[in-house]
Here is the input.
Amino acid sequence: MDSFLPIAYFQNKFLPFSEANISIATHALHYGTGVLGGLRGIPDPQNPDRILLFRLNRHSQRLSQSASFLHCDIPADKIQQVIVDFVKKNRPSKSFYIRPFIYTSSLGIAPRLHSVETDFFVYGLELSDYLPKEGVNCRISSWYRQEDRSLPLRGKISGAYITSALAKTEAVASGFDEAIMMNAHGKVSEASGMNIFVVRNGQLFTPGFEQDILEGITRDSVITIARDLGIKVTERAIDKSELFIADEIFLCGTAAKVTPINRVENYQLPANRPITEKILHKLTEIIENQDSNYQDWVFAIDLN
Here is the structure.
């Protein structure tokens, strides 16, 4: 059972998590008309009275942009301030995950985005590793990633995650840990809730935005880190067959961080993963505020 942080932000105020409840008639519950964010925080290893949030500015900006698809105008600086206040009130003592969510809060049955109210809530839970550190086994999903022409994939739309849920459960039910989804053109897109990187001949390859992927913040971080480490990164279409002959493959996301893939279908990948390990090591240093070159990625909150 997940251990939720005791205080939530709901309907413009902070209150006990157990009291932050919505009606069964809530519009977004029926139509998936919500947008979500997710960011990690940790107690500062060097100072227990300080909390470190990874790329808070960028997460707030993306959620604000996602909200515009709901015709909801909520500035990034407001989102950021609510999250900072949320952390101060909860004073988490372990690694945790924050879920901010903007949704159509009216009580009604018409699927629309006009003449409907919206609300913004935030809650959190303690979270260590979302996926096993030692790596995961993946299958190619029979479910395809949606196309941007039918769904605004530049936003984290809650309704879109039905495909992720179907793909994840299909993978687990068939003996795998995670799913890799192709797009409608038969190219690699992403996992159920993570972006994907392929290593071949010392270079990194990852699907570009035109492959119907989410604009992942951890993905962006990995690209920057890799290039700073002198690793060439190319964003391009990736064929399914490339997964079977890759030197390394890893998934990345806020919850997953950087997680290696051990096997794709019945193709075992090499156990030696130097590039994956190098990037994970650097990302961990950055998250823990141990690298001064990336201090603008870490938002520190003093609890005293």
User: Anything to note?
Assistant: The chain is about 25% helix and 30% strand. The chain has a mean pLDDT of 96. The chain has two domains: 7-126, 136-287.
